[in-house]
Amino acid sequence: LTQDELKRIAAYKAVDFVKSGMVLGLGTGSTARHAVDRIGELLRQGKLENIVGIPTSEKTEEQALSLGIPLSDLDAHPVVDLSIDGADEVDPYLNLVKGRGGSLLREKMIEGASKEFVVIVDESKMVRHIGGSRMALPVEIVPFCWRFTAGKLREVMEGYGGCEAKLRLGGEKGEAFVTDNGNYIVDMYLEKDMGDLRSVSDEILRLPGVVEHGMFLDMASTVIIAGELGVRIKNK
Ligand code: DER
């Protein structure tokens, strides 16, 4: 099975949790894309009705619109019944790293407002400790004096084993990547396991130029893991 087939298997399994009448948080990324496709298909087949989707990115909004999924937002629905989204890393306590697609702020707002948050991954995303895999831990920051804020992030992380902090670049001219919210992203590459995730999170969020980071601590209620040997469902 290819990685994308595993992602689709996990995504379809998560859509089994969807009931007619639900307000759904629609995730962003290559795994969540399969879940949104599946929801659109079931709506078209009449197997699901009265669904309202809350997209976590402009990209997902476009996909959902093309599928005819009725859309709304958190202002109209401050409580979401169920969110389905991918993740970049999942630890044994269901803490996540997300945001390598750049949508972490809207994802965290919508998934934080959800009664249930089902994470869908292929088995390659499972880790012992989040942030330790030399992959990026994304932090959304305001563009104003971004070098200052990146420097402050490096300072904070000195206390947690140190990190490299790199501005995420987009476009062909190598200019800064800009999020749906008009902000920048600094990708932090950590030297070693951060240890106390909650205190790292609090220290990062206290920096004035920081908007949000990609650690989703104690937020997921279920993770669906698709692997070569089948699909596992792990609850909080
Ligand atoms: O950027 C994001 O938050 C995505 O949801 C990411 O965490 C998972 O993306 P993938 O399904 O394409 O691996």
Question: Which residues form runs of ≥5 with pLDDT under 50?
Answer: none
The separation of the N and C termini measures 27 Å
The oligomeric state of the chains shown is single chain
Number of helices: 6
Total strands:
13
Question: N-to-C SSE series?
Answer: HEHEHEEEHEEHEEHEEEE
**Beta-strand share of residues:** 25-35%
Strand order of the largest sheet: 2-1-3-6-12-13
**Which whole number gives the mean pLDDT?**
96
Approximately how much helix is present in the residues?
25-40%
* SS-derived structural category: alpha/beta
Computed over alpha carbons, the radius of gyration is 18 Å
How does this structure look, described?
This protein has 236 residues and is of the alpha/beta class. Helix content is 29%, strand content 26%. It contains 6 helices and 13 strands. Strands 2-1-3-6-12-13 form a 6-stranded mixed β-sheet. Helix 1 (3-15) packs across helix 2 (30-44). It is globular, with a radius of gyration of 18 Å. The two termini are 27 Å apart. The mean pLDDT is 96. Bound molecules: D-4-phosphoerythronic acid. Residues 27-32, 85-88, 98-101, 103-104, 107 line the site of D-4-phosphoerythronic acid. D-4-phosphoerythronic acid (DER) binds next to helix 2 and helix 4. Pfam families: Rib_5-P_isom_A. This is ribose-5-phosphate isomerase. It comes from Brassica carinata.
